[in-house]
Amino acid sequence: MKNKPARFRKNLLSWNETSNKRSMPWKGVKDPYKIWLSEIILQQTRVEQGRKYYESFLEAFPAIGDLAKAGDESVFKLWEGLGYYNRCKNLLKTAREIYFEKGGIFPDAYEDIIQLKGIGPYTAAAMLSFAFNKPYAVVDGNVFRVLARIYGIDTPIDSTEGKKYFTDLAHQNLDKKLPGVYNQAIMDFGATVCKPAKPECNNCIMNSFCAAYLNGLVNHLPVKDNIIRKKIRHLTWLKISAGNKVLIYKRTANDIWQNLYEFYLVEKEEKTDWNIESVKDFCNHVFSMNPQQINILPKTEQQLTHQKIKAQIIEIDFTEAPGTLHAQQWVEEDVLKQFAFPKLLAAYLDEP
DNA sequence: AACACGGGGTA
DNA sequence: TACCCAGTGTT
């Protein structure tokens, strides 16, 4: 009787050869640049959501030098809508570091690769196994779930102890001769068979030795003890125009949507019901100027992981730029779409 | 160790 | 609504 890691490994690779139908453009690719790009895009992002971004990035920047030499705004524009924009900032930083300081060559040692911005333990292991065929086990959401169930581990996966435990377990299970194939297979298995909800236990080739299945714990594993608190924010964006120019600001604060653009923002603690009179009063009070025209759009909402955004856009036309206004950048209406905006504003620009 | 960071899919 | 997704960086 083989030990459990060996049994799991054998079954996983067998499933991979006979039943794994998952197809992705970066699968089997060895080019470190493409592996890296795909892994950054896929952090906390579903494969189906990331796929088109991978294609468009590769089309715009076929090699790392193309990305390294690109301007910030054009890269953020390509990233627009994908979320977690810090990834984009770090993508650029690392591309430039590799291209301009390391001769365009990705490091292939864990200690070197982990130091690059945007690359943590998961991405480092992915690059080392996929691009360099080195025996590092990836530990992502799929791996936590599969191993927690197969081995019946209830240590919280978001605890320090849990991360260490599952990393060690993942390494014990890894096929050291085929690390890339194994890593790809366990993630595909987690995504298509050992799914978070309604896993395919009845058709699972592991069910004869899966601790969670045998003990009726499938829906209780893995354990996560992180509690997310959501706060509500009330945002009003004043789209201020003067002539054919529109006022925009780049978000720089340590907050959501950093490095993206927005209109003049008014944030309040409580919900506000704007009307023509209150907008006029606001303009006269804050800008010392009477608006020529006001258009109050319907309220909209967006759910983020830690925040619920209640937003409203108000279009305001002035005959000329208010002198008292702290202006950052006036741009022509028809070049607005060259800038990257948060989803809510991008949707407005697409469908005003 | 705890928390923030987006947008979309699923139940 | 609540949870999750090829996680990482900051405090």
UniProtKB/TrEMBL annotation:
It catalyses: Hydrolyzes free adenine bases from 7,8-dihydro-8-oxoguanine:adenine mismatched double-stranded DNA, leaving an apurinic site. Its cofactor is [4Fe-4S] cluster. GO terms for molecular function: 4 iron, 4 sulfur cluster binding; 8-oxo-7,8-dihydroguanine DNA N-glycosylase activity; adenine/guanine mispair binding; metal ion binding; oxidized purine DNA binding; purine-specific mismatch base pair DNA N-glycosylase activity. Signal peptide: none annotated. InterPro entries: A/G_AdeGlyc_MutY (IPR005760), DNA_glycosylase (IPR011257), Endonuclease3_FeS-loop_motif (IPR003651), HhH-GPD_domain (IPR003265), HhH_base_excis_C (IPR023170), MIG/MutY (IPR044298), MutY_C (IPR029119), NUDIX_hydrolase-like_dom_sf (IPR015797). SMART domains: ENDO3c, FES. It comes from the Bacteria. Binds 1 [4Fe-4S] cluster. Residues 41-192 form the HhH-GPD domain. Its EC number is 3.2.2.31. Keywords: 4Fe-4S, DNA damage, DNA repair, Glycosidase, Hydrolase, Iron, Iron-sulfur, Metal-binding. GO terms for biological process: base-excision repair; mismatch repair. It is an enzyme of class 3 (hydrolase). Adenine glycosylase active on G-A mispairs. MutY also corrects error-prone DNA synthesis past GO lesions which are due to the oxidatively damaged form of guanine: 7,8-dihydro-8-oxoguanine (8-oxo-dGTP). This is Adenine DNA glycosylase.
